[in-house]
Amino acid sequence: MTEYQSMTREQMEAELAVQRAALEEFQKRGLRLDMSRGKPSPEQLDLSDGMLECRDFRGVTGIDSRNYGNLEGMPEARVFFAEMLGAKPEEVFVGGNSSLNMMYSMVDLGARLGYPGGKGSWLADKPKFLCPAPGYDRHFRVTEYLGFELVTVPMLPTGPDMDIVEELVLDERVKGIWCVPLYSNPDGYSYSDETVRRLAKMKTGASDFRIFWDNAYCVHHVRAKHDVILNMLDECRAAGCENRALMFCSLSKVTYPGASVAAMAASEENIKFILKNIFPMLISFDKMNQMRHVWFLKDMKGVEAHMEKHRAIIEPKFDAVLTTLERDLAPAGIARWTNPNGGYFLSLYTMEGCAKRTVELCKQAGAVLTGAGASYPHGVDPHDSNIRIAPTYPSLDEIRQASELLCICVKIATLEKLLAE
Amino acid sequence: MTEYQSMTREQMEAELAVQRAALEEFQKRGLRLDMSRGKPSPEQLDLSDGMLECRDFRGVTGIDSRNYGNLEGMPEARVFFAEMLGAKPEEVFVGGNSSLNMMYSMVDLGARLGYPGGKGSWLADKPKFLCPAPGYDRHFRVTEYLGFELVTVPMLPTGPDMDIVEELVLDERVKGIWCVPLYSNPDGYSYSDETVRRLAKMKTGASDFRIFWDNAYCVHHVRAKHDVILNMLDECRAAGCENRALMFCSLSKVTYPGASVAAMAASEENIKFILKNIFPMLISFDKMNQMRHVWFLKDMKGVEAHMEKHRAIIEPKFDAVLTTLERDLAPAGIARWTNPNGGYFLSLYTMEGCAKRTVELCKQAGAVLTGAGASYPHGVDPHDSNIRIAPTYPSLDEIRQASELLCICVKIATLEKLLAE
Questions:
Q1: Mean pLDDT of A7-11
Q2: Interface list for chain B against chain A, based on CB atoms closer than 8 Å
Q3: What is the CATH number of domain B4-44+304-420?
Q4: What CA–CA distance (Å, rounded) separates A19 from A343?
Q5: ipTM exceeding 0.90?
Q6: Residues A190 and A338: beta-carbon distance below 8 Å
Q7: How many CB pairs under 8 A join A and B?
Q8: Distance CA A13, CA A419 (A)
Q9: Is the N-terminal amide bond of B132 cis, ω within 30° of 0?
């Protein structure tokens, strides 16, 4: 196949006709495919059903997890997440079913009161928040909703563009940054050691600047080869600013989305401050569910063995997408995509101005993709190029069909654009 | 026995010596009793262990509760709580493990944005919140923490003093009122029909005034004879202000405290507004736990049967306290107490200025009571008279000992006070 950009107008029109015919064929199939959200498939959920056999709700220290109390989490859950997060148990707070909710509470806390070392309420300061983009739409929404100005930072294969970050954080109004450091959403990039160290060391205008380190995919490998990143709390401590890091993780994509356990780690000073401010909000989190998870997964060895079972289901789905993109799109020279070692997504980058149209065409043929632009602050991709692909939920056969359809739609959108120029 | 107030000084001194000797006997026993918190006892928790056998996590409509989605709650859970709250399923939002957390979110939402029909952020208005006292300390703390001025309203056996409430709510800065309408904490009073109707009908200065109707003990009867209250949402609707009522309930003291399910009901306009604003905070609540509860309890008939098992455990404990108070305190004429048909508490009212000293003396002998004053805004009882008694957690024998000790301490505190006058 000729690369599209080298085609004559007539060749393009002929090719467009071919692709439109292919699209029509797809439309006739009456497909209903969904590659829009990072949801585990039903067979992945089944992997955790053994957890329901747990009857061991009294902790090793004698605490009955069935009753009120222990806002900070069950002692054994703190030990479990300390290992997962790379911190000491006393630096860990184990919460409820949602790490997003935990992060929301932490941004809200900063908005209302600021953090230790700061000058009080962030909101009083017309605050800004750094959003490496493309990134996780629900992160950006939290800070937008709570009244922060979102500042876009370009995302590189090594993490956020640190030259730009270091410049921006000198502004006292910049209070924090969103990070998904391992297998970023949606690109699947992992932060380089240099990026982590520069984040830990950089001079910030706000004395209570916080890094929201959402290690959402810390055990979610797609490939046998794993990316490895530095520990942000350790690096901040080494740089003399241990209060800077707020690290989060979740078992939602280890066991059951929305019915699992979230936790965070930070300096003891931060954790003390946070627990004091969580206290007015509730009596205690669901400690029975904490116990259930620790009983089932035991420790990081247990988690790793469990995640290998997920990987066996997920890897072929990523492969199906990648094989199709390579076969159908590479020859046309009209797109690039990422090929991550883990996480829940990959990014497809179309030619500028083609992402929205591609997503629209897919939808017309029955395949729902994440809305184009969703991975950017306020839902606007300045290049209209990024499409987030979530291959985990549909079946392998559905993934194959959806990927083929996606390639057809990218081609049509690109040809339409080239012909309109 | 002579009433203390009719005693001569010498008689009082002799009686004080007797009671101090009795206290010393108690101290020798090295007791460790706790009547401070409204916690179910371990045998009450055991009543729900059958719930753990639930394996039915796919809803009647085909929704897999194990995965993300359905922020508003599982359809069957909305039906269940609609019956419990006396509302339509579409007026119900089923949340996570904590009704206190749900109420916190609702106060916070008003603080930030106000409610439909209002002029925006309550916080912009130096807001006040009505606190019928004695009441639930954790309610008062939520509004205190979020920056409201707490306005105390006297609590009567028929509910808050409505003459005072109707006067206060004319102030535009008064944004809401805390209510535990059935078996109030700590008195165990239930709102009269007149109180409910006046709350629904009263003219308020704030056009988005909200009644926080925490029906925490809606199925928690201690006696075979049940108190019955009107439905606040119905009454508000009848009065032409259906948006005024936010009704909450929880299964924490039906199944497992902190590991159960909370829900709320309100007008559809309120629920729509609330869900829109919960959306940025998390992806979904723990729907598996919602399913587990509906599977186990089934409907209100199932709940009633289950609560009868609780009642069989709780009623003798309330009786043990009341019998002891009647036997040891009534003849001295130095205290009064409530005798509720349900809930988790009863109130003991000492002579003015004796509550703190009583609690202190109990503590010295190894019995922890709720801090005197805890049931009042900012933890200050203006009469230093109210002591909240929580008889559910300790064993029957412990309750008997703690009640005896309590009576001795009330006597000593009262005699000390009378002798000092």
A1: 96
A2: 37, 39-40, 42, 45, 52, 54-55, 64-69, 96-98, 100-101, 104, 108, 138, 141-142, 145-146, 252, 256-259, 280-289
A3: 3.90.1150.10
A4: 32
A5: yes
A6: no
A7: 124
A8: 8
A9: no
CA B121 and chain centroid, separation: 28
Residue ranges per domain, chain B?
4-44+304-420, 51-298
**Residue of chain A whose alpha carbon sits nearest to that of B290:** A259
Chain-centroid distance of CA A234 in Å reads 22
Tokens at A384, concatenated: 């209209």
Q: Where are the alpha helices (DSSP H) in A126-218?
A: 137-145, 162-168, 193-201
B355-397 residue pLDDT tens: 999 999 999 999 999 999 999 999 999 999 999 999 999 999 9
First-to-last CA distance in chain B? 22
Strand order in the sheet with B335-337: B335-337, B346-350, B386-389
Contact A362/A372 with Cβ under 8 angstroms?
A: no
Alpha carbon of A66: minimum distance to chain B alpha carbons (Å): 5
If you count them, how many residues does chain B have?
Answer: 421
Burial B228-253 (b: 16+ CB within 10 A, else e): ebbbbbebbbeeebbbbbbbbbbbbb
| Cβ-based contacts of B45 with chain A (< 8 Å) | 64, 66-67
Percent of the residues in chain A that have a pLDDT greater than 90, as a whole number: 97
Amino acid identity, residue B237?
Answer: R
- Give the model confidence (pLDDT) of B218-255 as tens digits: 999 999 999 999 999 999 999 999 999 999 999 999 99
> What is the pTM for the complete model shown?
0.97
CA gap A247, A179 in Å, rounded: 10
Contact B104/A280, CB-based, under 8 Å? Answer: yes
Rounded to whole angstroms, the Cα distance separating B178 from B211 reads 7
Question: Does residue A157 have a cis bond before it (omega within 30 degrees)?
Answer: no
Residue B1 has pLDDT above 90, yes or no: no
B55–A55 CB contact, under 8 Å: no
User: Which tokens in the block code for residue A107?
Assistant: 């941004």
Pick from A197, A226, A266, A253: nearest CA to A38: A253
Bridge-partner residues for B346, per DSSP? B389
Would you identify the CATH topology of the domain A54-297? Aspartate Aminotransferase; domain 2 (3.40.640)
Distance (Å, rounded) from C-alpha B129 to C-alpha B212? 10
Residue type (1 letter), B340: P
CATH of span B51-298? 3.40.640.10
Residue type, B40: P
The pLDDT > 90 percentage for chain B reads 97
Please tell me chain A's helix, strand, coil percentages from 3-state DSSP, rounded to the nearest 5: 45, 15, 40
Distance CA A395, CA B398 (A): 59
Alpha-carbon distance A135 to A153, whole Å? 10
User: What whole-number distance in Å separates Cα of residue B338 and Cα of residue B155?
Assistant: 13
Dihedral pair phi/psi, residue B20, rounded to 5° = -65, -35
The C-alpha atoms of residue B112 and residue B122 are separated, in whole angstroms, by 7
Tokens standing for residue A242: 């241990």
Residue B68 with chain A: CB contacts under 8 Å: 37, 39, 252, 257-258
Neighbours of A236 (CB within 10 A): 24
Helix or strand (DSSP H, E) at A153: strand A149-156
Distances (CA, A) of B6 to A184, B13, B100, B326, B329: 79, 13, 46, 19, 15
Nearest Cα to Cα of residue B393 among A70, A286, A64: A64
Mind spelling out the 3-state secondary structure of B176-206?
Answer: EEEECCCCCCCCCCCCCHHHHHHHHHCCCCC
